[in-house]
Amino acid sequence: MSGLEIERKFLVRKGDAFKRAAFSCSRIRQGYMNCADATVRVRLRDDKAYLTIKSRSLDGGLSRYEFETEIQSDEALQLLKLCRGGLIDKSRYLVRSGRHTFEVDEFYGDNEGLVMAEVELESADEEFEKPDFIGMEVTGDKRFYNSHLLVNPFSSWRDTLPEEYR
Q1: pLDDT digit string, tens, across residues 43-82
Q2: Angle at Cα 133 formed by Cα 103 and Cα 10, nearest 5°?
Q3: Biggest alpha carbon distance in the chain?
Q4: In 3D, which of 20, 13, 44 has the Cα closest to residue 113?
Q5: What is the CA radius of gyration of the chain?
Q6: How far is CA 99 from CA 12, 76, 92, 121, 130, in A?
Q7: CA atoms of 108 and 21, how far apart (whole Å)
Q8: Residue (of 108, 164, 110, 159) closest to 136 by Cα position
Q9: Is the dihedral of CA 123, 99, 143, 69 positive or negative?
Q10: How many CB atoms lie within 10 A of CB 75?
């Protein structure tokens, strides 16, 4: 898969409403490689593995070029050894809302307590229905980039968010 990725990112309010609404759940472990002008991610998702390269965003985090390809799990395990700063560990829940599917990530480890949702869009101005558990938008806020969470984990700044999100 490759092309322009357009997505919006939101915090999820406390509670397990997103889990009750989910039609799928998977476990994800991912790491990031050093690269000056792009984000290079290695991901294990259940029994599959992927290598993803994302460009920098030129519009405040709303869209960027993305290339993703499936790789062998043993290759991913070797590549994860080259990643910097440890791994992101999370569960991903898929929730349908209208014509869209929200990906809701519940983080573990140093990012425990952080729950975020993303929705991919066809265009930057596309309308979508938000489930009730979706809260404050954080699109473009680098604190919420997975690669940033390795360096600056949620545990070190969680108290800066309103209580309903921590």
Answers
A1: 999 999 999 999 988 888 888 899 999 999 999 999 999 9
A2: 55
A3: 41
A4: 13
A5: 15
A6: 20, 33, 19, 10, 11
A7: 20
A8: 164
A9: negative
A10: 12
H or E, element range at 73: helix 73-80
| Element containing residue 104 per DSSP (H, E) | strand 100-107
Determine the Cα–Cα distance for residues 38 and 132; give it in Å rounded to an integer.
34
**Measured between alpha carbons, how far is 125 from 76 in angstroms, rounded to an integer?**
36
Q: Please give the positions annotated as active site.
A: 32
User: Tokens 């307590």 — which residue?
Assistant: 113
Q: How is residue 152 written in tokens?
A: 């600056």
Amino acid at 91: S
- Token code pair at residue 65: 């070029």
Residues 25-47: tens digit of each pLDDT: 999 999 999 888 899 999 999 99
Residue 165: which of 154, 149, 156, 150 has the closest Cα? 154
159: how many CB neighbours lie within 10 A of its CB?
A: 8
Tokens in use for 138?
Answer: 């954080």
